[in-house]
Fold this sequence. Notes:
It is a single chain. The chain is an alpha+beta fold. The protein has two domains: 2-135, Nuclear Transport Factor 2, Chain: A; 156-269, Nuclear Transport Factor 2, Chain: A (Roll), CATH 3.10.450. It contains five helices and ten strands, in the order ααβαββββαβαββββ. It has helices spanning 2-19, 33-46, 70-80, 159-175, 202-214; strands at 61-62, 87-96, 99-107, 111-121, 124-134, 192-193, 219-230, 233-242, 245-256, 259-269. Strand 9 (245-256) and strand 10 (259-269) form a beta hairpin. Helix 1 runs antiparallel to helix 3 (70-80). The radius of gyration is 20 Å and the shape is globular.
Amino acid sequence: MRNTFLFTVVISALSLTSCNGQDDDASTKEISNQEKVVALLKSIETGNQEPAAYINANKYIQHNLDVADGLAGFGATLQALPANSAKVNTVRAFTDGDFIFTHTDYNFFGLKIGFDIFRFEDGLIVEHWDNLQVTPEEANPSGHTMIDGTVEITDLGKTEENKEIVTSFVTDILVNGDMSKLTTYFDGDNYIQHNPNIPDQVSGLGAALEAMAAQGIYMTYDKVHMVIGQGNFVLTVSEGHLGEDYNAFYDLFRIENGKIAEHWDVLQNIPPKADWKNENGKF
Length: 283
């Protein structure tokens, strides 16, 4: 049964790849890349095989280190899911050029919150990154979950400006640790926080970091790999450490009037290279 499923997925993807350049191929022209991604993610729940055809079967680079490379690796992961166990609710989806990124509430080998990034070429998915974190049982100290909050995309004309603001914030504060600049990025103490362990307000963030430091736990961002956004939302992909753990940090920021107003994040430990199922790396 498993081999039959994988064969069907690969054949359907190959079929779309072979006709992608034809003028009469309506299937890739009538649906946006963002809609393709949302459909592909939902297929994890429904078992619908058609969205797999949005993946370029001849060129699919996988950065989830728990999944083997290529379309076969994707299919094998789906087959490993317990029957009828998966649930997928994509709460936010964004487009930045050839990149689509999503914020999703999963039941995927257990309850998780995840960010996914897909890169397209000629209407087909050729590369995928993600970060997944186990869903906390309770809301954070301010009553927020990792997925709730504002969803409306605004300020489309300010995308590049907002990306620059977030890049400066992450570089100044999280990479270089220059806390003297912290307040310049916020509107007073106003700040909505969705991290499961940190309360609202800039002062709440500062208090949480101080409490961690008092326990000898420090959060350091070593390198920013990607900054993508649409309008008032910007996502950064970074690597660094929380205490002794080597992690990937995905941070989603909402910008309002040139200031950071809201923040969501997903943190995932990066396993030793010996445990990777592909050679593409996390980033």
